[in-house]
Write a structure and sequence with these properties.
The structure is a single chain. It is built from eight helices and 14 strands. With 267 residues, the protein is of the alpha+beta class. The strands form four sheets. The protein has a five-stranded mixed sheet. The radius of gyration is 24 Å and the shape is globular. The chain binds adenosine monophosphate (AMP).
Length: 267
């Protein structure tokens, strides 16, 4: 993992206790702290083949690249970063409105295999090696198939999306038969932890059923407080729910609400 997946990948290794032996290591290969693991930093696009061919036992790359290369590797774990979609886009002023309208149209992409497989109609593929989004303006193609995350690049280039073909995020992949279970479980504990927060608050015991419903848990930890009729409630909640939970809990009379990050989590 080099390029845009590099920083989040190294930070995942660090959080899993597998950061470089020398902190701040910038080399293309480094041994890890705490485990007999050597990390190689190579292009995300090369990783599916490296893993398939046994150059390395596992790798971090995009699901888009694994699928495009058709690599015979095992997807061990979705990593929760590097999210993007492979989308079909046309110039703003184009007459095309739906994917189905593109039958026979020319489509520029660096994802010929996925495009051929996932487009609902036959198209003429125009192979390009980069800067796909300017192909329509150069008259090279009627449409493009390219990765989109925020949509800003499409807008800047006067393009509009006709819809997604494929959703992708970074994944840990392993060679069939390689001994990857330990590494995968160390990373899983961090990925799961990042997706959760530990929530603590005080509430009236009489409101317990209501706050359990709000936090979506039947059996949070409930501890008696010194004040009669009051309890402390502790629960793991999805990180994405926190913004909704806090005002609802306050509304239900909860107080001293604390939200703390979780470092590792094994179910
Ligand atoms: P790289 O070319 O090494 O910077 O990494 C490209 C990979 O990053 C892609 O194959 C995707 O899996 C992922 N990615 C996530 N968001 C985007 C995006 N907006 N554009 C391109 N690649 C993205």
């Amino acid at each position: 993992m080099k390029g845009r997946l590099r920083e989040p990948s190294v930070s995942l290794l660090e959080d899993a206790g597998l950061g470089p032996e020398q902190p701040g290591e910038r080399a293309l290969a480094f041994p890890c702290r705490n485990a007999p693991v050597d990390v190689l930093l190579v292009r995300a696009a090369d990783i599916p083949e490296y893993v398939q061919d046994g150059v390395v036992d596992c790798g971090i790359t995009g699901q888009d690249l694994v699928a495009e290369r058709g690599a015979r590797v095992e997807e061990l774990l979705e990593l929760g970063f590097g999210s993007c979609r492979l989308e079909v886009a046309v110039p703003e002023e184009s007459r095309y409105d739906r994917l189905g309208d593109l039958a026979g149209a020319s489509v520029a992409t660096v994802y010929p295999s996925l495009t051929r497989r996932l487009m609902p109609v036959e198209v003429d593929l125009v192979d390009v090696t980069g800067s796909v989004e300017i192909a329509p303006r150069l008259g090279l193609a009627d449409a493009i198939v390219d990765l989109v995350s925020s949509g800003n690049t499409l807008r800047t280039n006067g393009l509009r999306s006709l819809g997604p073909l494929f959703s992708s995020q970074a994944v840990l992949i392993g060679r069939d038969g390689a001994d990857t279970a330990r590494l995968a479980s160390m990373m899983r504990a961090v990925v799961e932890a990042r997706a959760h927060r530990y929530l603590m608050f005080n509430a009236e015991e009489a409101k317990l059923a209501e706050v359990c419903r709000i936090i979506g848990s039947d059996s949070p930890s409930v501890l008696p407080l010194a004040a009669p009729g009051m309890v402390a409630v502790h629960a793991l909640v999805p990180s994405a729910e926190v913004w909704r939970l806090l005002p609802e809990l306050s509304e239900a009379g909860a107080s001293s609400i604390l939200v703390v990050p979780v470092e590792r989590m094994a179910r």
